[in-house]
């Protein structure tokens, strides 16, 4: 049965045909592939950075971020980076590269010649997009969109490395990469700190990039829509991407949020979610409606949530958030799960789930930076790639379940695969509670009613 999942309307970017799409699961495979793309780059390297720590190293080469950037610039590439500069109101966790005096001294000592701009979001929110764009606008163009931060922890192995994270990127070739190009130009030209002496590096404030004027050539069979959450008031220049309708970006954009709801409402068989956060009430209500019409739902989250989530659990104002999760837990076809790897001694350790992806009915998928919490959906800047391609969606589902269940589910339909996921996760939870470390795969059930207590 063909599944018709509508795409979000009223945003900056249309649904684009003709794309080659390849998901990359976890940090080492993703950054190994990004490293290959950088070595092959002929013209440019542009990236958007949210969280960063100096301990980040590329796989294999062990180069730091700044070694990567400096080497690319030394080869003659046009290298540009958008760094997020947090406001004082930001109270979250995670390291950044805010362009402090110490940061700038480090760049001076390195003799760095790449170009950088710093950008502030509104109030306590952040610029959360994570993207790499190689050779923008050229035939060799390739884009990467996802959720993996530039930290050593992000490159850990979910199966074995204590402290590792589970996450994803998606590689895009074709017309959708033009929209990643457009997004970067829009951010670069209107970066909040561009006129400040400490708000840029390697260029002057008059440096502007031209918007793309033609789409990249078709490269594959996938339909893709680049989607964003952008608060109102951040950008003013609504120059459209090639072939797109004009869009009033000054009023903001919510295509990721809208797409999440559209896709969940259209599901008829199975919804698989990986996210750093349990869903806000509107999303939880959509998931509960899907469960009531017979859809299987599995949601993978951090088994050990960060302290802000635990603090929210103690705050009565956030009661509806956790009540929504508990209500989902009352449905037989729902499972909230975590994953736990094993160290060299065979002991289990919980793996932090940082991915932001969804696969529905083996027909549609999305990978990006957007969480299901209010910050991502209502205040941060975010970017996802939504994919209409059954081969890609099914392949991603099979790969993820192989990692988490240690079982090949390629012979199963989506609903049967998620029923098996629930069963294995439940039995693994029983073994975990009995103090046993020898169980199948990584996944184990969590109790939605007590999550984050």
Write the layout of secondary structure elements.
Blueprint lengths: L15 E10 L1 H14 L3 E6 L15 H10 L3 E7 L16 H10 L4 E5 L10 E5 L7 E5 L18 E2 L1 E6 L1 H15 L10 E2 L20 E9 L22 E2 H12 L3 E5 L6 H12 L3 E5 L6 H8 L4 H11 L4 E9 L5 E6 L3 E4 L3 E5 L5 H5 L3 E7 L1 H16 L8 H20 L9 E4 L7
Parallel strand pairs: 2-3, 3-4, 7-15, 12-13, 13-14
Antiparallel strand pairs: 1-8, 1-10, 2-5, 4-9, 5-6, 6-8, 10-11, 10-18, 12-16, 14-15, 14-19, 16-17, 17-18
Walkthrough of the structure:
With 453 residues, the chain is α+β, with helices and mostly antiparallel strands. It folds into 2 domains: 16-200, Endonuclease Chain A (Endonuclease, Chain A); 257-450, 2-Layer Sandwich (Endonuclease, Chain A). It contains 11 helices and 19 strands. The protein has a 19-stranded mixed β-sheet that branches. Helix 2 links the parallel strand 2 (44-49) and strand 3 (78-84). Helix 5 packs parallel to helix 6 (281-292) and helix 6 (281-292) packs parallel to helix 8 (319-329). The longest helix has 20 residues, at 414-433. The chain is globular and about 60 Å long. The protein starts with 15 loop residues before the first strand and ends in a 7-residue tail after the last strand. The mean pLDDT is 95.
Task: Give a short overview.
The protein has helices spanning 27-40, 65-74, 101-110, 175-189, 255-266, 281-292, 307-314, 319-329, 374-378, 390-405, 414-433, and strands spanning 16-25, 44-49, 78-84, 115-119, 130-134, 142-146, 165-166, 168-173, 200-201, 222-230, 253-254, 270-274, 296-300, 334-342, 348-353, 357-360, 364-368, 382-388, 443-446. It has 453 residues and is an alpha+beta fold.
């Amino acid at each position: 049965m063909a599944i018709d999942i509508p795409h979000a309307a009223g945003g900056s970017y249309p649904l684009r045909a003709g794309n080659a799409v390849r998901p990359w699961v976890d940090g080492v495979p993703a950054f190994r592939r990004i490293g290959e793309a950088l070595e092959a780059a002929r013209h440019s390297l542009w990236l958007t950075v949210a969280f960063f720590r100096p301990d980040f190293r590329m796989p294999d080469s062990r180069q730091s971020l700044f070694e990567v950037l400096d080497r690319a610039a030394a080869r003659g590439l046009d290298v540009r980076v958008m760094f997020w500069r947090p406001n004082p109101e930001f109270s979250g966790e995670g390291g950044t590269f805010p362009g402090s005096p110490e940061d700038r001294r480090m760049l001076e000592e390195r003799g760095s010649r790449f170009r950088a701009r710093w950008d502030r979001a509104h109030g306590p929110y952040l610029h959360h997009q994570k993207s790499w764009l190689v050779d923008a606008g050229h035939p060799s163009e390739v884009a990467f969109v996802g959720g993996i931060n530039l930290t050593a922890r992000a490159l850990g192995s979910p199966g074995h490395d204590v402290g590792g994270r589970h996450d994803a990127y998606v590689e895009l070739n074709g017309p959708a990469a033009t929209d990643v190009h457009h997004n970067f130009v829009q951010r670069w030209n209107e970066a909040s700190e561009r006129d400040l002496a400490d708000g840029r590096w390697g260029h002057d404030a008059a440096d502007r990039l031209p918007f793309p004027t033609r789409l990249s050539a078709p490269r594959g069979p996938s339909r893709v829509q680049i989607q964003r959450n952008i608060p109102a008031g951040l950008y003013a220049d609504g120059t459209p991407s090639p072939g797109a309708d004009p869009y009033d970006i000054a009023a903001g954009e919510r295509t990721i949020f809208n797409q999440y709801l559209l896709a969940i409402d259209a599901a008829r068989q199975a919804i698989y979610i990986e996210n750093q956060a349990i869903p806000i009430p509107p999303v939880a209500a959509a998931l509960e409606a899907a469960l009531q019409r017979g859809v299987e739902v599995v949601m993978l989250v951090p088994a050990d949530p960060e302290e802000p989530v635990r603090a929210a659990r103690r705050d009565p104002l956030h009661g509806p958030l956790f009540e929504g999760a508990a209500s989902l837990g009352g449905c037989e076809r729902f499972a909230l799960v975590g994953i736990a790897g094993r160290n060299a001694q065979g002991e289990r350790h919980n793996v932090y789930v940082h991915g932001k992806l969804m696969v529905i009915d083996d027909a549609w998928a999305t990978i990006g930076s957007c969480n299901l919490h209010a910050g991502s959906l209502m205040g941060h800047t975010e970017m996802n790639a939504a994919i209409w391609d059954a081969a890609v969606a099914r392949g991603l589902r099979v790969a993820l379940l192989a990692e988490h269940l240690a079982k090949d589910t390629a012979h199963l339909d989506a609903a049967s695969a998620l029923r098996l996921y629930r069963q294995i996760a439940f039995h693994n939870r029983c073994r975990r509670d009995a103090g046993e470390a020898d169980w199948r795969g990584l996944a184990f059930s969590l109790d939605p009613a007590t999550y984050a207590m």
